[in-house]
Amino acid sequence: MRSDLLTADGLTKRYGRFTAIEDVSFTLRAGEVLGLVGESGSGKSTTVRCLVGLTKPDAGTVSYDGEPLQGRAAWHRFRREAQMVFQDPYASLNPRMTVAEIVGEGLRVHGIERTAAGRRARVTTLLGQVGLDAGDLDRYPRSFSGGQRQRIAIARAIAVEPRVLICDEPVSALDVSVQAQVVNVLRDMGRELGLSILFIAHDLAVVRYLCDRLVVLDQGRIAEQGTREQIYDNPQAPYTRSLLAAVPIPDPAAERERRHRQKESAR
Ligand SMILES: Nc1ncnc2c1ncn2[C@@H]1O[C@H](COP(=O)(O)OP(=O)(O)OP(=O)(O)O)[C@@H](O)[C@H]1O
């Protein structure tokens, strides 16, 4: 298996005279969780849209599994093997479909489970994997909380046995108290199924214990990229440092130490 699974190479996108992203290059490797982090307007969505073919970049290429993403066959394969979890759990699930239909649709479309009974059994297993249960099969999205809806969206995504999950701010719309639970479901699923995950976030706190490596975007350009240890313990770019400074630290002793270091470095 290749270790480089999904690669953005020199992606640039302009809207009129405004450059939304410029020369954005990074690689999602097999089996890793890669964070794409930056403030609102830094170009995260534009990058994702270019990656998944919703926006045509003005320059740059996207490769999947070592081949440029070009032509119908390549895109067809990519669309099955790379699944998305979106930000808004209230908009991303069809309100007229039951959970069994939502999660089972991909199984039907891709011919993974050809019978209704087979799909129901498979959906029951998938719901169990994300912490829901068989009693939820015939319920509609409106009767679930935001966190539960994201669990349904994750079940839908993993149903078609993808290699890649692209999670576009999947916990940003959720209460802080449930964010960690959904992040944990993604982490556990990723490990169990050997998935590669691209996790988009505007907040470095959310991805701290999830990502193996991070790409930090600032005003459409990559400020820096590196391993979790490099980014959190030894950030090089001033922009990364300012993002980290905005991260609340739950440990009061660590917070005192951080303030002390900040004062020292400001002298
Ligand atoms: N269709 C468009 N037309 C014009 N400008 C756009 C368009 N889409 C995005 N932009 C601009 O490009 C820049 C990057 O936007 P993008 O949505 O990629 O950022 P983001 O990091 O995803 O922000 P957010 O977290 O708020 O979604 C922003 O300044 C935005 O206003």
Automatic annotation (TrEMBL):
CDD domains given in the database record: ABC_NikE_OppD_transporters
SUPFAM superfamilies for this protein: P-loop containing nucleoside triphosphate hydrolases (SSF52540)
One example GO MF annotation: ATP hydrolysis activity
Keywords: ATP-binding, Nucleotide-binding, Transport
Domain ABC transporter positions: 6-244
Record GO biological process: peptide transport; transmembrane transport
Cited PROSITE patterns: ABC_TRANSPORTER_1 (PS00211), ABC_TRANSPORTER_2 (PS50893)
Family statement: Belongs to the ABC transporter superfamily.
The protein, known as: Oligopeptide transport system ATP-binding protein
